[in-house]
Write a structure and sequence with these properties.
Layout lengths: L3 H12 L12 H20 L1 H5 L8 H26 L5 H10 L15 H22 L5 H29 L3 H20 L11 H6 L7 H19 L9 E3 L4 E3 L5 H11 L3 H14 L1 H22 L1
Antiparallel strand pairs: 1-2
Helix pairs in contact: 2-4, 4-7, 6-7, 6-8, 6-10
The chain binds benzoyl coenzyme A.
Length: 315
């Protein structure tokens, strides 16, 4: 049923802030674009459980452990909402996982860095979840209905994540000299990769054109990155942390913070598979995915059996 009329109708719906739903007509490019972005977003949530999972057994108190456990469980849930949203576009979960394992599908650059100590758990919550929220608040108004609704739920949970990270950092900055140094060191290591989470500069971002036309993206990579910088610099100052960038300064004219150059060579190296932990993250995912095969088989067998029974009743 693809003709000019349906394409025009589709674009009109987008232009007038309507949602596109799974059974609506959509151009093939829109479907593909969404499958790529939503599946990569889902993979990021699930791979993102690894750096933090590493610290559950070493959390410094029962309270900290409970909070961290809840946060990591949330990330698994976010992965689930997002895989389900992508499935409505006609791709199966198996295909998405296969694309992750073969390297065809990416996941966020940020999860290829190691969480070396407890301060890193603070930095991840504060900076990584902080960056993710800025992006996801904007995506709440994305044009594809199931993605937009998943974002609304995710944002509610994400703001608690950001606060748990900031609380850890604030506590450490109120502690001993060693604790302050640990917090600053974590800040130094996570700041630049967090800025890279927003993707390349707008002029170097191949997907932005279509994404903006189709209102998949509501704000550009650079606009969102700037929003994150503006709010985070002030939070850092409040607890005595220094941004590891000598070029950070308030610009009266633009009413934003100027910042130094991002190392895009590092970004490309990491997203091509050559970051400090890419191999570790993928090996871990493949190992546990394979070990879980029997659970998937049992669930699928149960579903078939149940269906047959229901069919019998109807028959
Ligand atoms: N990392 O044309 P561009 C979380 C790729 S997890 C890796 O600007 P686009 C959390 C990009 O994919 C939340 N790759 O693309 C979980 C493209 O390559 P492909 C994660 C990146 O899509 C656990 C190429 O570079 N959030 O919160 O228009 C614990 C050109 O880029 C990255 C999301 O996933 C990157 N950072 O814009 C704690 C948000 N950036 O696909 C926390 C959803 C770019 O052609 N995604 N690339 O091979 C988006 O909003 C957009 O996809 C992006 C990129 C802004 C990331």
């Amino acid at each position: 049923m693809h003709n000019e009329h349906t394409d025009q109708h589709f674009q009109l719906r987008i232009d007038t802030e309507g949602h596109i739903e799974p059974r609506d007509y959509m151009p093939e490019g829109y479907r593909k674009h969404l499958i790529r972005q939503i599946s990569q977003h889902a993979h990021s949530e699930v791979i993102g459980m690894q750096p933090e999972g590493n610290w559950i057994t070493r959390a410094p108190s029962l309270r900290a452990k409970q909070i961290l456990l809840a946060k990591i469980q949330d990330e698994g849930g976010h992965g689930l909402y997002l895989y389900s949203a992508a499935e409505t576009l006609g791709i199966s979960r198996e295909e998405m996982i296969e694309q992750l394992h073969s390297g065809k599908a990416k996941y966020s650059n940020i999860f290829n860095y190691p969480a070396l100590n407890w301060a890193d758990i603070g930095a991840i919550g504060w900076l990584v979840d902080g960056a993710a929220i800025v992006n996801q608040v904007s995506l709440q108004r994305t044009s594809y209905g199931p993605y937009s609704r998943a974002m609304v739920r995710i944002c509610k949970e994400e703001s608690f994540h950001q606060r748990q990270g900031y609380e850890i950092m604030a506590k450490m900055m109120n502690g001993t000299k060693e604790q302050k140094e640990m917090a600053q060191d974590a800040m130094n290591r996570w700041w630049w990769p967090a800025l890279m989470m927003f993707g390349p500069h707008d002029k170097d971002s191949p997907h932005t054109g279509d994404a903006v036309k189709w209102k998949i993206k509501r704000e550009s990579n650079d606009t969102l990155r700037q929003k994150f910088i503006d709010k985070t610099v002030q939070q850092a100052e409040l607890i005595g942390l220094k941004i590891p960038d000598n070029d950070i300064k308030w610009n009266e004219k633009t009413e934003h913070y100027d910042h130094g150059e991002i190392d895009w060579n590092e970004f490309h190296r990491v997203i091509k598979g050559n970051g400090p932990c890419n191999k570790q993250r993928m090996d871990h995912h493949i190992k546990y995915h394979n070990e879980g095969a029997w659970v998937r088989e049992a669930a699928a067998a149960y579903k078939t059996k149940k269906l047959k029974k229901e069919e019998l009743v109807i028959g």
